[in-house]
C-alpha cells in the first residue's frame, strides 16, 4: 500500500498522461501500441494505478516524447540531505548497518 501522497501523485501523473495523449490526437489504442503496453494497462496508467510497473509508465512517457522531464526527479544536487556533499563522488559506494 502506497502512502496517500504517492497515490495522489500517480493519479496526477495519469491525468497528465491522458491529457498529453489527447493533445496529440492519439487514441488509447494508438498510444498503447506505440508504447508496447496493452490497452488495459494504458487505461490503468491513465487512472494512476499503483499496481502498474514503473517501466510501463516510462514506456508511455517515452512514446509521448515527454521522458526528458524525468531527469529532474530526485536530483542529488537538490537534496537537502546532501548540503555538505558537493559531489556524487563523495558519497559512499554502499551504506551498511
Task: Please describe what this structure looks like.
With 97 residues, the protein is mainly alpha-helical. Helices cover 48% and strands 0% of the residues. The mean pLDDT is 88.
Number of helices: 4
Mean pLDDT: 88
Gross geometry: elongated
Helix content: 40-55%
Q: What is the rounded Rg?
A: 17 Å
Main beta sheet: none
How much of the residues is beta strand, in percent?
Answer: under 5%
Instruction: Show unreliable segments.
Output: none
The CA-CA distance between the termini, in Å, is 26 Å
Structural class: mainly alpha
Would you list the SSEs in sequence order as H and E?
HHHH
Give the tally of β-strands.
Answer: 0
Summarize the structure.
The protein is an all-alpha fold. The chain has 4 helices and no strands.
Amino acid at each position: 500500500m502506497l502512502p496517500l501522497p504517492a497515490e495522489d501523485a500517480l493519479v496526477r501523473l495519469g491525468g497528465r498522461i491522458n491529457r498529453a495523449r489527447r493533445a496529440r490526437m492519439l487514441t488509447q489504442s494508438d498510444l498503447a501500441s506505440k508504447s508496447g503496453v496493452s490497452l488495459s494497462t494504458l487505461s490503468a496508467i491513465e487512472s494512476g494505478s499503483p499496481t502498474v510497473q514503473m517501466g510501463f509508465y516510462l514506456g508511455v512517457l517515452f512514446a509521448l516524447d515527454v521522458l526528458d522531464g524525468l531527469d529532474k526527479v530526485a536530483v542529488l544536487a537538490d537534496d537537502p540531505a546532501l548540503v555538505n556533499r558537493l559531489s556524487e563522488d563523495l558519497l559512499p559506494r554502499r551504506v551498511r548497518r
